[in-house]
Amino acid sequence: MDITTNSLYAQMQSMSLEASGNNITSMPKVNQSSSDFGNILQDAVKSVNELQKDAGAKKTAFELGDRSVTLAETMIASQKAGIAFDATVQVRNKFVEAYKEIMSMPV
């Protein structure tokens, strides 16, 4: 399976946009020369973190009896955060696997 940096970023960002309910067509184009992979990955992790913070805030508000937050909104936010975190863990696992493979190559 061939995974390039831009396609991986595009997949992660489209999942993030789907989870946040934004329109996928408004996704910015990635210019290979102007974007650093570390920055792209950092932005993706920040996006997952924001989803988790939002889910936590909705859970707290619901538990405190805030009538503006429904159970459905709380559960959906929680599921979005969980899916985004699972995707992040899978990406991390692929990086670790690739690193181990590179390190086991003879010099």
UniProtKB/TrEMBL annotation:
What are the protein's UniProt keywords? Bacterial flagellum, Cell projection, Cilium, Flagellum
> Which InterPro entries is this protein grouped with?
FliE
Q: Which residues cross the membrane?
A: none
- Show the GO MF annotations: cytoskeletal motor activity; structural molecule activity
Example of a GO cellular component annotation carried by this entry: bacterial-type flagellum basal body
* Localisation per UniProt entry: Bacterial flagellum basal body
Q: Name one Pfam family in it.
A: FliE
Record-level GO BP terms: bacterial-type flagellum-dependent cell motility
The text of the family note is: Belongs to the FliE family.
Q: Which HAMAP family match?
A: FliE (MF_00724)
The name under which this protein is listed is: Flagellar hook-basal body complex protein FliE
Organism listed in the record: Thalassomonas actiniarum
Gene name in the database record = fliE
